[in-house]
């Protein structure tokens, strides 16, 4: 199975200067755990609910002045839409990530692959192996 068969499409993203409150609203309104951050037609980071808490709230920062860039994780891992699911699952397990942006051959984001997508698109053995690898550090 190819990643594009399991991923979800229509991913919402934001520019790095997006106020943190708006990013939090996007997470809530779209019922997702991550918002990709893009600049100059490139994916430059990801903001998770955990990033907001650990890099914003827990640091005691004035949240009203923070932007997506202030709390985002950079060095984004991704996979290609035409990758095999087994390759993508191994990549996610190796990097211990729960979500992976999916890009096409032109490196334009076309979707997101998440644990939920994997549970619907992979066999039980792959799901178990992936879940164990990703959660091993917790």
TrEMBL record:
It holds the Pfam family CBS. InterPro entries: CBS_dom (IPR000644), CBS_dom_sf (IPR046342), Diverse_CBS-Domain (IPR051257). Residues 7-63, 72-132 form the CBS domain. It comes from the Bacteria. Coiled coil: none annotated. CDD domains: CBS_pair_HRP1_like (cd04622). Keywords: CBS domain. SMART domains: CBS (SM00116). PANTHER family: CBS DOMAIN-CONTAINING PROTEIN, CBS DOMAIN-CONTAINING PROTEIN CBSX3, MITOCHONDRIAL. This is CBS domain-containing protein. It comes from Microbulbifer celer.
């Amino acid at each position: 199975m190819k990643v594009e068969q399991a991923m979800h499409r229509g991913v919402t993203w934001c520019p790095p200067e997006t106020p943190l409150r708006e990013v939090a609203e996007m997470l809530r309104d779209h019922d997702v755990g991550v918002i990709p951050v893009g600049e100059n037609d490139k994916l430059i980071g990801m903001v998770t609910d955990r990033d907001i808490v650990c890099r914003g709230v827990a640091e005691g920062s004035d949240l009203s002045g923070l932007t997506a860039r202030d709390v985002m994780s950079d060095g984004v891992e991704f996979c290609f839409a035409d990758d095999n699911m087994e390759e993508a699952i191994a990549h996610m397990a190796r990097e211990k990530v729960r979500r992976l942006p999916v890009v096409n051959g032109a490196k334009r984001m076309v979707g997101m692959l998440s644990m939920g997508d994997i549970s619907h698109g992979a066999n039980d053995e792959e799901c178990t192996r992936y879940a164990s690898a990703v959660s091993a550090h917790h």
